[in-house]
Structures are given as structure tokens and as C-alpha cells.
Amino acid sequence: MAVEESIYALIPPVAMVTQRPAMYKSKFPTGVAPTASTFGMHGTSKPGVKNVGGAMVEGEGPHPFKKAHATFGKPDNRPSPNDILRATKPTLADPKPFVRPKLAPSKPLNPSKEEIAIAAARVAAAESAPRKNFVQANAIENILSAPKRESGPVDWRKKPDFGKVPTYLKNIQKEIGEEHEYIRAMHEAQAAAAPPGMRLMGEDEKMELVISLKTKWDAVNSEYQKSSTLSLASLDTIGKVKRKEGYEAQLAQIEKDIEKLSKPVIWVHDDGSY
């Protein structure tokens, strides 16, 4: 495609020459830290920051603010492999010449002529010795042995422990006697510790009272069931209501009395009143 001519291209454009400014130089010294700088303060005499006042000259002190090699370290800071950190320097013993230990032979040595002769003599003696016929020996032993006789019936009356109480029964009787003695002693201790004018109710007396109370409960409950006070519709008078409440109170009281008699220890008056 041909480029069309233009009147604007007749006059060449003027080249613009850019004037480069002068190199910038800071008015602050390069060797002084900025204001309130915290860089490189480790190990110096300033607590955490330096040049707080914005001084143009590095301050003086017992420790320099700018550490040597504080940026990239020493030129060659690789540790030497010989410099090993240790508590004490080890002392090595004087070297000794190496002596190779004598190793045992890996295979047994061949037997000598004397050993071969002795082994051959033992084999010949074993072969020439008479061999035992075990089948014939067992047959002769069985023929000559006396036949086994079965034992007769055992007479148990002639046993040494016939008619005696076994040992395990004696032990059981002894344990039962000890338990009875312990219970009796416990009852005596409880009776001795009774309050004044009171005595401990016995088991027979307690069971008799429980049976009497249960009989009474059955009788009251039977009367309660037979009465016409069970349904709410029949409670049309004050007398029926009071009769129903009386039956229920009697049954509840009998149940409380039976529950009291179920306690292990019950104290009663000496005169027999409860």
C-alpha cells in the first residue's frame, strides 16, 4: 500500500533535546543513621534507638553505633572445619603399630592317621558285637511274667476314715459356729448399749408383729373394697367421704409400721409397750 503524501511531512519535526538534571546529592550525611533508627543497635550503649534528636554527626559513646561488618558480615566468614566447639581439648594416646590378629581356620583340619585308625577300630568292634533281638526278648519277658490279678471288691467299712465326719464338713461346721457366735456377740453388744428403759426387739417378736400387721392390712383392705366408697360417683354424702379417708389412712399407717419393723435394730420399752 502506497503511503499518501501529506503537507505535514514536508517540514521535518524539530528534535527535542532533554536536559538531564544534575545528580541528586542528599544534604544529610550518608554515614549517620536516620532519626530514631533501631537498625544495628544490638550491643551498643543506646537503649533501642539512636539519633533521636536528628543530629547530623554520629554521636560518640563507649560502644560504636556502627558495627564493623554489621550489614553483610566479614568478607570470609565461613567457619573452619577444624574449629570444633568442645568443653575440653581431647588428649590422644600415642599411636601403636597395627598387629593383625590371628584368625582361626575356617574349615576343620583333616584327621591324622592315628585318628582314622581309632575310628575304624571302633566301627569294627560295634559291627562284631552281638545284636539284641528285641522281638524275642519281649516275647520271653511276657511269657515268664506273672499274670495280673484283679483286686477284689473294696470293703469300705475297713477304711481308716469309715464312720467319721469328713474334714470339709468339720470346717463348714466351724465356720457356721463362728458366725453364730459373732451374731450373738453383736446382739449382746447392742443390748448392752441400749438406752435406759429400752431393750432390743428380737427377730421372733419382730416377725410376729409383721405377720399381725399384714393380717390387719388384709382385713382393712377387704372392708375398703367391699364398701361403696371406691367410685367418685358414690361419694354423695360427707359420711362416705370420711369413711373412705379413714380406710386409706389406716392402710397407710399399717404400711408405715411394717416399713419401720424392717429396720435391723429396733428398741422397745422394757414394759412391752411399743
From TrEMBL:
<feature type="domain" description="Enkurin">
    <location>
        <begin position="173"/>
        <end position="269"/>
    </location>
</feature>
<dbReference type="GO" id="GO:0005929">
    <property type="term" value="C:cilium"/>
</dbReference>
<keyword id="KW-0966">Cell projection</keyword>
<dbReference type="Pfam" id="PF13864">
    <property type="entry name" value="Enkurin"/>
</dbReference>
<dbReference type="InterPro" id="IPR052102">
    <property type="entry name" value="Enkurin_domain-protein"/>
</dbReference>
<keyword id="KW-0206">Cytoskeleton</keyword>
<dbReference type="InterPro" id="IPR027012">
    <property type="entry name" value="Enkurin_dom"/>
</dbReference>
<dbReference type="GO" id="GO:0005516">
    <property type="term" value="F:calmodulin binding"/>
</dbReference>
<dbReference type="GO" id="GO:0005856">
    <property type="term" value="C:cytoskeleton"/>
</dbReference>
<protein>
    <recommendedName>
        <fullName>Enkurin domain-containing protein</fullName>
    </recommendedName>
</protein>
<keyword id="KW-0963">Cytoplasm</keyword>
